[in-house]
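2024-03-11 09:14:02 DEBUG pipeline.ingest accepted 1 chain
2024-03-11 09:14:02 DEBUG pipeline.ingest length=296
2024-03-11 09:14:03 DEBUG pipeline.predict start
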Amino acid sequence: MAVPFDQRADLIWFDGKLIPTAECKISVLTHGLHYASCVFEGERAYNGEIFRSSEHSERLKRSAQILDFDIPYSVAEIDAAKRLVLDKNNQKNAYVRPIAWRGSEQLGVSAQNNKIHLAIATWEWPSYFDPAQRLKGIRLDLADYRRPDPKTAPALAKAAGLYAICTISKHRAERRGFADAMMLDWQGRVAECTGANIFFIKDGKIHTPIADCFLSGITRATAIALARRHDIEVIERRIMPEELAGFSECFITGTAAEVTAVSRIADWTFTPGRITQALMTDYSAEVQPKGKAAAA
């Protein structure tokens, strides 16, 4: 049986101090738990270096500001703390999870004077999906829940509360034999998966939804840049579900998913092809620290 995350024999950076993971505790009356005043990042270290670390730290601080609080550390300080945790945990290829939240000084909807906490955990984590399946293509369900209207939720923050419908949707998909689920937006247009952005290919061009009610991921931006290096046109636009039958390929992107091919969404089928395979290969090369050999 796998060791529970809170019992791992490593260290967490907590408000400026390294603490054994099993000793890292917060109150059950923390505002972030009761009212979702909590933001986080998901990052990966490859061969000892965190991919686009500063961009993730900048987004973490922006997410907090959207939720009306300020993280009391600079981007440079957050970057340094992440490197320290990786070093002390002796991890080269790992997942990195910074998380910030309002504390327990006041428990109510309003908690403007609560202390803001920041913690950073890391752990070894292999590919999110089976490597062979990533190239063959995973199967996606169609989620019942939709991404909310950005006028009703802080959609551009990586906020913990926004992931409740993602967890529900992914659980339902897994029970039905799918790897994940694709979500529509509040107007019924294609949006994203529960934790990854989505792309489609038709006639040699890549199409992807406009990211205005969900996060425009850092991996998403990397994949778009890689495609354009190959002079592949990338079109960001509104995509309706009925258009899916006209696409030949589909793939998803995310820190956890990296670049993963999709073979089916509900009743729509796709065949992973040249463009998807090229982007998977290019992304694997892109994340490796320059000047270092790829990790075994």
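2024-03-11 09:14:41 DEBUG pipeline.report The CA atoms of residues 143 and 183 lie 5 Å apart.
2024-03-11 09:14:41 DEBUG pipeline.predict end
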